[in-house]
């Protein structure tokens, strides 16, 4: 299957799991460009579950990583799904120059 995304979302991550543990696990499946764990490792708030986003260099790693779904990691069965990337659109310079509040009532 061809994937256009390079990102997977991993849910049901144990609260005691660290980002380094996630990097080690998913690092066996492909080269990781970026990994974000929410809430972060140093979060002061109590955590019942975590979510992790992993961005690979190759989209093929997304398909391979889905095979980790239902794998028990630490004390929870992971759920791994592809996650659509959102491209940031560049605003046209003319739109930027005209930004601001809407004009008041004008007669036509």
How would you characterize the overall build of this protein?
With 108 residues, the chain is α+β, with helices and mostly antiparallel strands. It has one domain (7-82): 2-Layer Sandwich (Alpha-Beta Plaits), CATH 3.30.70.330. It is built from three helices and six strands. It has helices at residues 19-27, 60-65, 93-97; strands at residues 7-13, 32-38, 50-56, 72-73, 76-77, 79-83. It has a four-stranded antiparallel β-sheet. A two-stranded antiparallel sheet has the order 4-5. It is globular. The N and C termini lie far apart (56 Å).
Key phrases:
single chain; 108 residues; alpha+beta; Alpha-Beta Plaits; 4-stranded antiparallel sheet; two-stranded antiparallel ribbon; 3 helices; 6 strands; disordered C terminus; RBD_domain_sf; RNA binding; RRM_dom; Serine and arginine rich splicing factor 11
Low-confidence stretches: 92-106
How far apart are the first and last residues' alpha carbons, in Å?
56 Å
Could you give a short account of the major beta sheet? 4 strands, antiparallel
Structural class: alpha+beta
Helix content: 10-25%
Number of domains: 1
Principal-axes geometry comes out as globular
Q: Please compute the radius of gyration using only Cα atoms.
A: 20 Å
Strand content: 25-35%
Quick check: average pLDDT? 84
CATH class: Alpha Beta
The DSSP helix count reads: 3
Total strand segments: 6
Oligomer: single chain
| CATH H-tier superfamily | RRM (RNA recognition motif) domain
């Amino acid at each position: 299957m061809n994937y256009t995304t390079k990102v997977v979302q991993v849910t049901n991550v144990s609260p005691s799991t660290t980002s380094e543990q996630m990097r080690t696990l998913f690092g066996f499946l492909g080269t990781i460009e970026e990994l974000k764990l929410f809430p972060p490792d140093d979060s002061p708030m109590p955590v019942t579950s975590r979510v992790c986003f992993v961005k690979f260099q190759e989209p093929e790693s997304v398909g391979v990583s889905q095979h980790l779904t239902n794998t028990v990691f630490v004390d929870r069965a992971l759920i791994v799904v592809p996650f659509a990337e959102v491209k940031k659109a560049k605003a046209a310079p003319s739109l930027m120059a005209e930004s601001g509040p809407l004009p008041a009532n004008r007669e036509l």
